[in-house]
Design a protein that fits this description.
The chain has helices at about 5-20, 25-35, 40-55, 60-70, 75-85, 90-105, 110-125, 130-155, 160-170, 175-190, 195-205, 210-220, 225-235, 245-250, 255-270, 275-285, 290-305, 305-320, 325-345, 350-360, 365-380, 380-390, 400-410, and strands at about 420-430, 435-445, 450-465, 475-490, 490-500, 505-525, 530-540, 545-555, 560-570, 575-585, 595-605, 620-630. It is α+β, with helices and mostly antiparallel strands. It has three domains: about 5-205, Tetratricopeptide repeat domain (Serine Threonine Protein Phosphatase 5, Tetratricopeptide repeat); about 290-415, Serine Threonine Protein Phosphatase 5, Tetratricopeptide repeat; about 420-630, Beta Barrel (Porin), CATH 2.40.160. A twelve-stranded antiparallel beta barrel has the order 1-2-3-4-5-6-7-8-9-10-11-12. Strand 7 and strand 8 form a beta hairpin. The radius of gyration is 44 Å and the shape is elongated.
Length: about 625
């Protein structure tokens, strides 16, 4: 007869005879009375009431456990033995009962048998012969089974069954590292067995590896096996998994399309469109017939302007059997195709109609919004164009957002009734050993016949030296005037009349000036640039003089080479020279976007000789900044 049966017979025989002595609660007395009458259901209820009165007494729980065994409630008895063992760890009879019941348990057998083995091992170390026999009966078959499966794997071909059986035996014997390794290999050999992920999660939890446990549960919860997915979800925390946890789960289950898709949508919600593209691409690589993934990837390619990559995916969807998905794709791509053809052919009104249809089909397509802005701009409807640019600059795609922002900023002043511009240019010159300051604030009426715009202007022309020095270069004045301006292609013409107010000795002098300017610039994708501009300026207060300025700059990123030519009709010595030299132009992070700093080293030559002024070549190091705003 086995040790477990002998133990139970002895204890059950004395249970109704020896446990009534002493003063007990009424509930406990009723429990023992019911036991003598073999009214076990009544006894269970009374024991439970007694536990409610005295929850810290292990003997009551032990007696309740034995009573539950009599009526076949083994699971409930196991719980009571476990609690009694916790309250009184020295009671080896309770521990043995708990271990025997755990070993026989049908629910979660792997964990239960491992737990039974640990309890037997603990008790046998105190010299208990029953525990020693029970431990050997449990551990011996485990040792032999592990050795057998290891040998089988060494001499024969790998199989899922061999690795899985070895992993289970190792887990029951608490060799958790060996168990995890063979569960992983079994998973690699047969990925369709999703429940292995739950086994892995159980072992990882026992090893104290929370991240690995989470990864296995996430992978199982997003599987196609409903029961395994449900069990995994029950063990997951209530919060939503993080991106790195999805990625760790995919390392365990790289072919899980559900995982890839959910991670892709999470990345989209986080505005990581490139990351989402990679996930959808992996889905299609593993499952070429996944039409939803193909459509989503196509929309992402289209949103960043890669039509060549998007169209084959859309064609795959259109050739598939998902009518609803095909209709969605068709509503987006057909109007866009027609719009692009119309734009290339110059049929702007047709392009506008197709773009509006495309926008109705996908209201979140920022590239369509950008094209609507440009189309309205080409149709000279800037007030509508700027609204589309304003929407498109919210795009998560940096290229679309930046292009829309530039267009919006360029158009915004042109759509307002009044436009205010202000600029300032202070700099230091070693040639003149002086600090100069030039600036202007101009308020312009932004509408008028023939594109002629009246404006009110205040200019500043200043330097830091006394009034007797550098007279030609600084008028030391605020110049207030009324003017008109017009623009034709790249030419801007202007004329104004006003008064110059000298700020060193208050005086007022009439001032009439005007001119014509032209500018052109080129910039490559690699940050190379070239700029050319010319100005013809008339100033009445300097002998009705006409001055000509020609400037050119070529460079890469922040480095440039500049050439300046200055001439005038009155042939003044200081106003006729040519200079050239290298320089840098840069923006300091954290400062306003329109603030540019510059340093230039120039070598110059006078074009006219003078009996009073210098005639030798000169050098000039200039440092300053330029800041301009438009409201």
């Amino acid at each position: 007869m086995c040790p477990q049966i002998l133990l139970r017979l002895a204890i059950c025989a004395i249970l109704p005879l020896g446990l009534i002595a002493g003063s007990e609660s009424s509930s406990l007395s009723r429990a023992y009375d019911a036991l003598r009458d073999k009214s076990y259901e009544t006894a269970v209820t009374a024991f439970q009431e007694a536990i409610g009165d005295e929850p810290a007494r292990p003997d009551i729980r032990k007696d309740l456990a034995y009573t539950l065994l009599k009526i076949g409630e083994n699971e409930a008895a196991l719980e009571q033995f476990q609690e009694a063992m916790r309250l009184d760890p020295a009671d080896q009879n309770v521990a043995l009962e708990f271990a025997f019941l755990s070993f026989e348990r049908k629910t979660d057998p792997i964990t239960s048998k491992a737990l039974a083995r640990r309890v037997f091992d603990r008790i046998r170390r105190s010299g208990n012969p029953t525990a020693e026999t029970a431990f050997e009966n449990v551990d011996g078959p485990l040792r032999n089974g592990i050795a057998k499966w290891k040998q089988a794997l060494e001499i024969g071909p790998e199989s899922f069954s061999a690795h899985y059986e070895l992993a289970q035996l190792a887990e029951q014997r608490d060799d958790l590292a060996l168990s995890a390794a063979h569960y992983l290999r079994a998973r690699e050999l047969l990925p369709a067995r999703v429940r292995v992920l739950l086994d892995l999660a159980r072992v990882y939890r026992s090893l104290g590896l929370p991240e690995e446990t989470m990864a296995a549960l996430i992978a199982a919860s997003r599987s196609g096996e409903p029961r395994a997915a449900e069990q995994a979800r029950e063990q997951l925390p209530t919060r939503y998994p993080y991106v790195y946890e999805f990625r760790q789960a995919l390392q365990l289950d790289p072919g899980n399309a559900i995982l890839h898709r959910e991670l892709a949508y999470l990345l989209l919600a986080m505005e990581d469109s490139r990351g989402a593209e990679a996930e959808f691409a992996l889905i299609i690589q593993e499952s070429p017939d996944d039409l939803l993934a193909a459509a989503q990837l196509g929309f992402l390619y289209l949103a960043r302007g890669d039509r060549d990559a998007a169209m084959p995916l859309f064609q795959r969807v259109l050739a598939g059997n998902d009518a609803a998905l095909s209709a969605r794709v068709r509503a987006v791509i057909e109007p866009r195709l027609m719009a692009d053809r119309s734009l290339k052919a110059g049929f702007l009104n047709d392009a506008l109609r197709y773009l509006n249809i495309a926008h109705e089909g996908d209201a979140g397509d920022y590239e369509v919004m950008l094209k609507l802005g440009w189309t309205y701009n080409m149709l000279h409807d800037d007030r509508t164009a700027i609204r589309w640019f304003d929407l498109a600059r919210q795009s998560p795609d940096p290229a679309i957002a930046n292009e829309a922002l530039r267009a919006y900023e360029n158009l915004r002043p042109a759509t307002e009734l009044f436009r205010t511009t202000a600029w300032i240019l202070p700099f230091y010159s070693t040639r003149w050993h002086d600090v100069f300051g030039y600036g202007q604030v101009k308020i312009e009426l932004n509408r008028g016949p023939l594109k002629i715009h009246p404006y009110l202007s205040t200019r500043l022309v200043a330097d830091s030296k006394p009034a007797s020095q550098n007279q030609p270069l600084s008028e030391k004045s605020f110049i207030v005037g009324l003017g008109i301006a017009t623009q034709w292609r790249r030419f801007v013409g202007w004329a104004e009349a006003g008064s110059a107010i000298n700020y060193t000795h208050v005086s007022l002098r009439p001032d009439y000036r005007g001119g014509l300017s032209w500018a052109r610039g080129w910039t490559s994708e690699r940050k190379y640039f070239a700029e050319l501009n010319g100005d013809e300026v008339f100033i009445s207060r300097f002998g009705n003089d006409w001055l000509t300025y020609l400037q050119s700059r070529v460079g890469y990123r922040w480095a440039l080479f500049q050439t300046n030519l200055t001439m005038d009709t009155n042939r003044q010595h200081w106003a006729n020279y040519i200079e050239a030299g290298p320089g840098i132009r840069f923006h300091i992070p954290g400062t306003p976007n329109r603030l540019l700093f510059s340093v230039n080293y120039m070598r110059g030559y006078y074009l006219l000789t003078s009996s009073t002024g210098p005639n030798a070549p000169f050098t000039d190091l200039r440092a300053g900044f330029w800041y301009a705003i438009t409201k």
